[in-house]
């Protein structure tokens, strides 16, 4: 990335909330995931990085410490800091197309509530989403994997179902709770993905640069009466999330 591009990023960072070292860590993380710094590569010195970003050395040191805690880099006494030779696959959060696989993946995630409202707001719905519930309980959360924020999600739960297990819905992954309740009938679930960029609020919550690529995922779950008992609007950070799906050709070439 050019120095002018870095300066544009940092100017935007300084206008936004959040610590500057967190934003620099995000830029360095993106270089690693993009392959700019392959495994085993020695990072530039703290002095060179500080000069590149026009920040204090202590700021760069804090940024590199974040990557070290995540296992992306390792420090070798007297030699410098290197990109880890084995970047753990577990760092990726996969958007699954299978319901069962998605549930298994989410068992390893945690959530932090940002906002909560009771029967105040309703999701914007299309006729194809099903019938709206009489009222919804609203949760806004940040989802984390290995203590790294990877998604911000607005969740609308049928108020009647929320009242069955309010403590669990507040502390656990919502869809996992829905799946476990015996008197909840899940008839269908749809998932739609679109590509966008992070605004200031989302960038701060996900600890990524402003205008970074993100995936907007909308999930709707309906019951046997075609009532939308769950609507989720999630924003995933593009440097940690990937979509995997096996495509089966209609015919095999010979």
Commentary on this structure:
Strands 4, 5, 6, 7, 8, 9 and 10 form a seven-stranded mixed sheet that branches. Strands 1-2 form a two-stranded antiparallel sheet. A two-stranded parallel sheet has the order 3-11. It is built from nine helices and eleven strands. It folds into two domains: 3-87, Orthogonal Bundle (Arc Repressor Mutant, subunit A); 91-242, 3-Layer(aba) Sandwich (Chorismate lyase), CATH 3.40.1410.10. With 254 residues, it is an alpha+beta fold. Helices cover 31% and strands 30% of the residues. The chain has helices spanning 3-15, 20-33, 46-53, 57-69, 99-106, 159-162, 166-171, 174-180, 200-206; strands at residues 73-76, 80-83, 93-95, 110-118, 131-132, 136-145, 148-158, 188-197, 213-222, 227-237, 241-243.
Number of strands: 11
CATH-defined architecture of the largest domain: 3-Layer(aba) Sandwich
CATH superfamily of the largest domain: Chorismate lyase-like
Strand content: 25-35%
N- and C-termini, Cα separation: 45 Å
**Average pLDDT, all residues:** 82
Stretches where pLDDT falls below 50 for ≥5 residues? none
The quaternary organization reads as single chain
> Helical amount among residues, as a percent range?
25-40%
Radius of gyration of CA atoms, rounded to a whole number: 21 Å
Shape: elongated
State the helix count: 9
How many domains? The number is: 2
- Per the CATH scheme, the topology name of the largest domain is Chorismate lyase
Provide the structure class.
Answer: alpha+beta
Strand and helix order: HHHHEEEHEEEEHHHEHEEE
Sheet bearing the most strands, described? 7 strands, mixed
CATH class of the largest domain: Alpha Beta
């Amino acid at each position: 990335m050019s120095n002018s591009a870095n300066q544009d990023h940092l100017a935007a960072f300084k206008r936004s909330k959040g610590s500057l070292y967190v934003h620099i860590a995000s830029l360095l993380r993106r270089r690693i995931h993009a392959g700019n710094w392959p495994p085993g590569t020695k990072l530039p010195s703290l002095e060179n990085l500080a000069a590149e970003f026009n920040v204090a050395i202590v700021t760069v040191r804090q940024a590199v410490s974040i990557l070290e805690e995540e296992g992306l880099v390792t420090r070798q006494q007297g030699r410098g800091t290197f990109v880890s030779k084995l970047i753990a696959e577990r760092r990726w959060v996969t958007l699954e197309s299978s319901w069962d696989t998605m549930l298994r993946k989410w068992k390893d995630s945690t959530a932090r509530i940002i906002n909560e409202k009771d029967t105040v707001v309703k999701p914007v719905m299309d006729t194809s989403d099903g019938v709206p519930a009489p009222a919804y309980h609203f949760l806004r959360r940040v989802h984390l994997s290995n203590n790294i924020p990877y998604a911000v999600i607005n969740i609308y739960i049928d108020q009647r179902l929320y009242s069955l297990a309010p403590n669990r819905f507040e502390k656990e992954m919502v869809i996992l709770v829905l799946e476990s309740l015996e008197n909840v009938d899940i008839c269908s679930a749809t998932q739609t993905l679109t590509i966008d960029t992070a605004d200031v609020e989302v960038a701060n919550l996900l600890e990524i640069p402003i205008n970074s690529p993100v995936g907007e995922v909308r999930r709707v779950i309906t019951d046997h009466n075609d009532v939308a008992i769950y609507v989720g609007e999630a924003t995933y950070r593009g440097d940690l999330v990937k979509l995997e799906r096996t495509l089966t050709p209609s015919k095999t070439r010979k």
